[in-house]
Amino acid sequence: MQSYEVEVKALLGSAERMEEVRRAMRAADPACTLQSRNKQLNHYFEGNTLGRLSETAAQYLSAEARVRLQDFVARAKEFSVRTREKDGEVFLVVKVSVGDDTSANGVSRMEFEEKVPLTLTELDALVLSAGFAYQAKWSREREEYVCKGVNVTLDKNAGYGWLAEFERVVDDPTKVNEAQRDIRALMETLGVAELPQDRLERMFAFYNAHWEEYYGTEKIFMIE
């Protein structure tokens, strides 16, 4: 079964603003507690087709994962391919846009994320061998919470500074709009403003052009 990721981002910037949001979550939902804390490396790729990647990666995927990825191949008009290292585990990630959103930063996306028995370097080499090229490499520290039924992450991103992501994952495309409403209602309760898609795209483009300057550092930039 495919899953649909509904995600809205908010740029917090400073650690002080992040602390304000953390306190607001606990005030809004006393059951809200830290679920996990981790460090991630995320490598983004561009080019080629999902079909070739699906064939190249098949030997490292479960039978169920191969079927899901093949379904993405049949559906995808716009997609984003990534590799991820999270606390020593490595994942192949594919995100496909739903509606008019972009696969890289859109609000509603189908998501494939599968653990593979490879190192990040080995998985990168596999993706490159399927005809893709590096778009950018990202690094972040992440805190994960659940607040009023919404998954909330507080991310310290190289380049961006602190960023909040509000997410629900649904298994039915008819539930996407309801999930968006729930997320935005929580954000309003917390006093958090959505990062406009056009500004997010400008930030994303700037980072992609300068990622080697920021990857693995605490340096940030400001793009309006």
TrEMBL record:
Matching SUPFAM superfamilies: CYTH-like phosphatases
Alphabetical list of Pfam families matching this protein: CYTH (PF01928)
Domain CYTH: 3-210
InterPro entries: Adenylyl_cyclase_CyaB (IPR008173), CYTH-like_dom_sf (IPR033469), CYTH_domain (IPR023577)
Membrane-spanning parts: none
Domain of life: Bacteria
Protein name: CYTH domain-containing protein
Organism: Candidatus Kaiserbacteria bacterium RIFCSPHIGHO2_12_FULL_53_13
